[in-house]
Design a protein that fits this description.
The complex is a heterotrimer of chains A (288), B (370) and C (246). The N and C termini of chain A lie far apart (59 Å). In chain A, α3 packs across α7 and α5 crosses α7. Chain A contains 12 helices and 2 strands; from the N terminus they run αββααααααααααα. Chain A is mostly helical. Chain B folds into 2 domains: 219 residues, 3-Layer(aba) Sandwich (Rossmann fold), CATH 3.40.50; 81 residues, OB fold (Dihydrolipoamide Acetyltransferase, E2P), CATH 2.40.50.140. With 370 residues, chain B is an alpha+beta fold. Chain B contains 9 helices and 22 strands. With 246 residues, chain C is mainly alpha-helical. Chain C has a domain of 167 residues: MetI-like (MetI-like fold, Orthogonal Bundle). Chain C contains 13 helices and no strands. The C terminus of chain C is likely disordered. The chains are: A mainly alpha (288), B alpha+beta (370), C mainly alpha (246). Chains in contact: A-B, A-C. At the A-C interface, α1, α4, α5, α7 and α9 of A face α1, α3, α4, α5 and α6 of C.
Chain lengths: 288, 370, 246
């Protein structure tokens, strides 16, 4: 009788631990096997040599990293940065006013506008990119219209501009949503307070609205930049293989050249760039 | 100084402000008092420039205000939420308005230092708003508003976000500051005690209209409508018809003593309002009557007016509030319990038969609202 | 405008009677008929449904348990981050990691390897959606149930799960939609013998643009829009975009 009240909390906490194990173990095991092990493989393959017919030979080498800094590959990395950066910048410039306008709408229209922004995002990615081929190609609709007025045809497809456009089109909703969330959260009284203290609309925007929505802008930029940077479908379909991005390179190292170790090294470089950006984001967000 | 003339504002079918006319004097501490949704905040936002009225004019020292952009009005508004800029320090928040005037840096620094000194926040100049307590935030908001030396300071429910104890401190602080800086203050509040203790004059709002503009004491002692009588402090109301002189004729209680307001004529339908603390209460017992004098109806007089003539009722509840006791009395024929306040602890017990009485000059007879 | 014009053009062109994907010659359902007779397309469709269905089942069960475990039985930030990682990592990195892993264990690639791969990232989204729901749910209900003598399993089945049902359904729908549309990971992990519909479209486009692709695209658009609107009825916008909430 005496130790019954004592044994109860013990059995409870044991039950809780058992519960934790039952709930967490399957999912975590899945993550460990299919996420951590594969990532570990990517990481470790970077220091091994390629097999003659694909695969990997477990002999240590730093050759993959030396190759990474070869001007040829460095150039591709820089190009990818540039293209993804440009798409992100344009998305920000387009996305900010859009998000701002949506935030000013009456409640009912807000929801409709947000759904309208998100809806295309839920359609097949390949199809959305494909739609642009129809619009942009030399025999496509835009050139068709231009020719009706006696212009062109222009090379609209298979260049950098087309890649940027494709990335922008595919990921713009990812910019608008976090921006909208940030702008919506902003207390309208802060803007009124600024006006009341004598600031013009422009000053209010620059000194109050912009700094307070900066974290949203950074999150949005990251959401656009991350999938843009490692993309290989859009450069291939709209860029026509002329301008390679890191993604294309990784893809061909794995599926055509069968050089897994170097492909892994490229992937590591990609992750490294994204990590730097994430750290940067965390830093700016904490300061704001 | 500030003239509000015929301001009307409608939102859809709702009329937030209906032909409001007010005049506020230089250096005055003026309160707009009313329940939520009575339009007082809308009026404040019109003066500040965040709303546009459908009709009417607002002038400040003869200058038209409505044609000016909000950022070009010599008026500061202290927001209910304080609206401090969360990404700026206290000093930056306070300096913000001065920076807009393009003043030299040294002067900004000096004036920010001075005003922070005044509100007692000098040590916290480098903090961000989220690191401050509610009362400190309120002081920052106040400092930010007065540092520009506006001609008029509007305060929207300045104390509502504070807890009770801090509120009492800030109330004194506001009064002191207003004396010191000599700016005209217009404060919006739903709290009648706050309005009474702060303001020189009070405008009571009801459903978009001004019911009465008066000094606190006059407002309390001589309400001119049922709404004001009911809203400002506790009041006991009796319905009837105005009698020949200082009295109200009622169906259920006979003739009750009271002083008619100016616009009440004999034979008009009217209401009699008497404050709980003005009512004398005496216990009816088999052989003798013990009298408890209420504060207003002091001493011997009260025992004189009580007796046979007063209202008869039964005590329902007695609650002791420290300094005073509130006694609810059920008077047959009166829909609400009559509330009586007496000094100190009361000796009557629930169930006791009592008589209630007051003198004519302690009660007012007011017209029934149309 | 910018978002919808390309989609509209695509749908209009799918009713084209001519051979060209670019110039509209007249209204026709010819290409839709042709689609139905295309074995590759129909095979792709079946595969897509198998992969989406299979991965959704795994992801919903594991993701829900993970969400409950993380919310109620763990305070570890590391585990939180781990659970959400597959949703944040670039799909390409996930794809090659899995490819290397399957290579290492000498698994022959096929539908099941794609199912396992899709379940990985879907699980992260299910867990995120269910957690959002869970944080709004009242944990004292579970404590009350335990206090009344119910075991953890009974409590989970009879108290927690019914409360979570809308979140679980929303999560499952999200997982299914994501898997339907997913290309990169499937492309790397499904091998050479099988194809999902996005892969079919991708390889068709590489051989040239035809109105048949337009028709296929239009059908997929219709399916996705329907799924999203159905999901919209079950959950709020915010919950459907866990990425944006991060």
């Amino acid at each position: 009788m005496k130790d019954k009240p004592e044994s109860r909390p013990v059995s409870l906490s044991r039950g809780r631990r058992l519960g934790a194990f039952v709930f967490l173990a399957p999912g975590l095991a899945y993550l460990a096997v299919l996420l951590l092990v594969p990532l570990g493989l990517v990481l470790s393959y970077t220091v091994f040599q390629r097999g003659r017919f694909g695969g990997v030979v477990y002999e240590f080498t730093t050759e993959n990293f030396t190759r990474l800094f070869d001007s040829l590959y460095l150039r591709v990395l820089l190009d990818s940065l540039q293209i993804a950066g440009l798409a992100t910048l344009i998305a920000l410039l387009l996305g900010y006013p859009t998000a701002y306008l949506i935030a000013q709408l009456p409640r009912k229209w807000k929801t409709i506008a947000l759904v309208a922004i998100v809806l295309p995002f839920w359609t097949n990615f390949i199809i959305r990119v494909y739609a642009w081929i129809i619009l942009l190609s030399p025999e496509g609709l835009i050139n068709g219209w231009l020719q009706a007025f006696g212009f062109g045809p222009y090379e609209l497809l298979y260049n950098r501009g087309a890649i940027v456009l494709g990335l922008l089109y595919s990921y713009l909703p990812l910019m608008v949503l976090p921006l909208y969330a940030a702008i919506e959260k902003l207390d309208p009284q802060l803007r009124e307070a600024s006006a009341n203290l004598g600031a013009s609309a422009f000053t209010t925007f620059r000194k109050v609205t912009l700094p307070l929505t900066l974290p949203g802008a950074i999150t949005g930029s990251l959401f656009v930049f991350v999938p843009s940077f490692g993309n290989f479908v859009i450069p291939e379909m709209l860029g026509g293989g002329k301008s390679n991005m890191v993604g294309n390179l990784i893809r061909s190292e794995f599926l055509s050249a069968r050089d897994w170790p170097f492909g892994s090294t490229l992937a590591l470089a990609l992750i490294a760039v994204l990590l730097v950006l994430l750290v940067l984001q965390a830093w700016v967000t904490r300061r704001a | 100084m500030l003239k509000i003339d015929g301001i009307t504002r409608r939102f859809g079918d709702v009329t937030a402000l209906d032909d409001v006319t007010l005049e506020i004097e230089q250096g005055e501490f003026f309160a707009l008092l009313g329940p939520s949704g009575c339009g007082k905040t809308t009026l404040l936002r019109i003066i500040a420039g965040f709303e546009t009225p459908d009709a009417g004019t607002v002038t400040l020292d003869g200058e038209d205000l409505l044609s000016r952009q909000p950022n070009r009005r010599p008026i500061s508004l202290m927001f209910q939420s304080y609206a401090l800029f969360p990404h700026m320090t206290v000093a930056k928040n306070v300096a913000y308005g001065l920076e807009q005037e393009k003043l030299p840096r040294a002067e900004i620094k000096q004036r920010v230092g001075e005003v922070l000194e005044t509100v007692g926040l000098s040590e916290l100049a480098g903090r961000k708003p989220h690191q401050l307590s509610g009362g400190q935030r309120q002081r920052v908001a106040l400092a930010r508003s007065i540092v520009k030396r506006p001609r008029l300071l509007l305060l929207d429910e300045p104390l509502s976000a504070l807890d009770k104890k801090v509120r009492a401190d800030m109330q004194l602080e506001l009064k002191r500051l207003q004396n010191e800086v000599g700016i005209t203050f217009v404060v919006v509040t739903h709290d009648q005690e706050e309005a009474m203790s702060l303001a020189d004059r009070i405008a009571v709002f009801d459903r978009g209209r001004v019911c009465q503009v008066d000094e606190p004491v006059a407002l309390y002692d001589r309400p001119r409508s049922r709404f004001v009588a009911d809203f400002v402090g506790a009041n006991n109301l009796f319905e009837g018809t105005a009698g020949a002189k200082d009295e109200l004729e009622t169906e259920d209680f006979g003739v009750l003593p009271g002083t008619p307001a100016e616009d009440v004529k004999q034979g008009d339908k009217a209401l009699l309002a008497v404050r709980p603390e003005k009512i004398g209460l005496s216990q009816v017992s088999e052989d003798s009557e013990t009298t408890e004098a209420a504060e207003g109806a002091e001493g011997t007089e009260s025992s004189e007016v009580t007796g046979e003539t007063g209202l008869k009722g039964t005590v329902v509840d007695v609650s002791f509030y420290g300094g005073v006791s509130h006694i609810s009395v059920d008077v047959p024929g009166q829909p609400r319990h009559v509330l009586v306040a007496v000094q100190g602890a009361s000796e009557v017990k629930p169930g006791a038969e009592v008589r209630l009485a007051w003198q004519a000059e302690e009660a007012v007879i007011i017209p029934v609202d149309q | 405008m910018f978002l919808y014009a390309p989609i509209v053009v695509l749908v209009v062109m799918s009713f084209n009677s001519g051979r060209s994907a670019y110039t509209f010659e007249g209204f026709s359902l010819e290409w839709y008929g042709e689609l139905a007779g295309d074995e590759r397309v129909m095979g792709g469709l079946v595969n897509t449904l198998i992969v989406a269905g299979g991965s959704t089942v795994i992801a919903t069960v594991l993701g829900t348990m993970l969400a409950v475990g993380l919310a109620r039985h763990s305070r570890s930030k590391v585990l939180d981050a781990l659970a959400f990682m597959p949703a944040v990592l670039p799909d390409l990195v996930l794809a090659i990691g899995l490819l290397l892993f399957y290579g290492l264990i000498q698994l022959t690639l096929g539908l099941y390897s794609a199912v396992l791969a899709h379940a990985l990232f879907s699980m992260a989204f299910v867990a995120a959606v269910v957690r959002t729901r869970l944080s709004g749910a009242d944990s004292s209900l579970e404590e009350a149930s335990r206090d009344l003598g119910a075991g953890p399993v009974t409590t989970f089945m009879r108290i927690t799960l019914p409360q979570l049902a809308p979140g679980v359904i929303a999560g499952a729908l999200l997982a299914f939609t994501l898997s339907l549309d997913e290309f990169v990971i499937a492309y790397f992990t499904i091998g050479n013998t099988e194809q999902t519909l996005p892969i079919v479209i991708y390889s068709m486009i590489r051989f040239g643009v035809t109105p048949k692709i337009n028709a296929l695209a239009a059908i997929l658009l219709l399916v996705s829009f329907t799924a999203v609107i159905a999901g919209q009825r079950l959950t709020k916008i915010g919950e459907r975009v866990p990425r944006a909430q991060d």
